[in-house]
Amino acid sequence: MPRELTAVYLEMIREIRQSMCAGFQGPEQPADALLEASRAIHGVSYAADQIPESEQRKWACQSGCNSCCYLMVAVSAVEVLRLVARIPELLGAEGTKSLISNLERRLIRSRPLSTEALVETPMPCALLSEDGSCSVYAERPVICRGYYSFNRYACDDEDVPVVPTDNRVLMMADGTRAGLRLACGDAGLGSRAYELNEALHRALTTDDALDRWLNGEDIFAGCREITESTGAARAHFRELEQRTR
Q1: Angle between helices 167-186 and 31-49 in degrees, nearest 10
Q2: Minimal CA–CA distance to 102: which of 14, 207, 240, 204?
Q3: What number of other Cβ atoms are within 10 A of residue 96's Cβ?
Q4: Minimal CA–CA distance to 16: which of 146, 189, 172, 228?
Q5: Residue 26 pLDDT > 60, yes or no?
Q6: 132: left (phi > 0), else alpha (psi -120 to 50), else beta?
Q7: pLDDT of 68 above 80
Q8: Which residue, among 162, 99, 171, 106, has the nearest Cα to 136 in the 3D structure?
Q9: CA 24, 76, 241, 16 torsion: positive or negative?
Q10: Residue 205 carries which DSSP code?
Q11: Cβ neighbours of residue 228 under 8 Å, at least 6 residues apart?
């Protein structure tokens, strides 16, 4: 990463980390924490919108294409709990029940797999609607906001090893998720990342999940953790922790 981009990347993580820590310490809980998380997450989409239209026209993503919705997604705990807080309004009572059923069916397929196998096994996200669109698109997790492909055919071709994406937006999404994770760690709530569907099912089926998590209970115990898979990745995350204090 060029030096000037590294500086911007680190400053973004630092600002998110600081604002989230302030949110965790705010007088109105859980509203203050969720507000800061929402600002950070929506900030990725806002930044993508600022990219010149001439460059946005190179993006191949369109309404109805959902190849990336078959990939494994790693999320921070606060992302999941923020989404759960919005789901009743987005989907209604019946839609929420249907989502829980979708999650349970998916987990029957995914839980026996190792994380490595799950990465290699295309499996639809439980948040996909029958028409193939995201049922919570406006409130989708941060990393889902970071994928802007330059080639839709590459997205659908399993033989293409790397899909060409707009790395500027992906970098913002990755940095935002890192900032959220680090802030959770700063607050004593753990900096772990989880597989989206498992964590979402746990949060939806746990009474008072958000309040219990904010009070220090490990409500995601036993959910699949998506950790840095290599020594280099772990070292990178530790470096981010040190350089964005």
Answers
A1: 170
A2: 204
A3: 16
A4: 172
A5: yes
A6: left
A7: yes
A8: 99
A9: negative
A10: T
A11: 234, 236, 237
Structure token digits, residue 114: 């190792």
Contact indicator for 10, 243 with CB cutoff of 8 Å: yes
Nearest CA-CA partner of 10 in 142, 178, 170: 178
210 alpha carbon, distance to own chain's centre? 17
Give the whole-angstrom CA distance, residue 67 versus residue 154: 10
Q: How far is CA 27 from CA 33, 55, 86, 210, in A?
A: 10, 42, 21, 16
pTM over 0.90: yes
3-state secondary structure of 52: coil
* Identity of residue 135: S
Instruction: Tell me which amino acid residue 6 is.
Output: T
Check if the beta carbon of residue 175 is closer than 8 Å to that of residue 13: yes
Task: Check if the beta carbon of residue 85 is closer than 8 Å to that of residue 186.
Answer: no
CA distance 48 to 43: 9
- What is the C-alpha separation between 14 and 217, in angstroms, rounded? 26
- Average pLDDT on 3-29 reads 89
User: Which amino acid would we find at residue 198?
Assistant: E
For 106-135, what is each residue's pLDDT tens digit? 999 999 999 999 999 999 999 999 899 999
Tokens of 199: 């964590």
Contacts of 131 (CB under 8 A, 6+ apart): 64
DSSP string, 59-107: ----TT--GGGGS--EEEHHHHHHHHHHHHHHHHHHHHHHHHHHHHHHH
